[in-house]
Amino acid sequence: MQLLTINYVPGHEIEALGIVKGSVVQTKHMGKDFMASMKTLVGGEIKSYTDMLNEARAIATQRMVEEATAMGAHAVIGITYGSAAVMQGAAEIVAYGTAVRVIR
Fold first, then answer.
1. Which pLDDT band, with edges at 50, 70 and 90, does 27 fall under?
2. Which residue from 6, 17, 83, 102 has the fewest beta carbons nearer than 10 Å?
3. Is the pLDDT of residue 93 over 60?
């Protein structure tokens, strides 16, 4: 499955199958959330949140790919990611794009 942020598959004619998306709401456990809040006092990267968001993006991408595969897609084009804070320490990550079938 090709995953592209551009709106075409280079060198190929495509047929659009529809919008596909994947999402996840992810949080860290209370202990890591407490340690992250302490980090805000001294500044710097909050590695536990960086790791959480990377994991959430991977899950959202996989769910989007599963939806595209079920539609018979060869690729997803125009991929975009979005995020939103759902509550303190929890974030929603959404991945979406257009599932396409390569014709030639």
1. confident
2. 6
3. yes
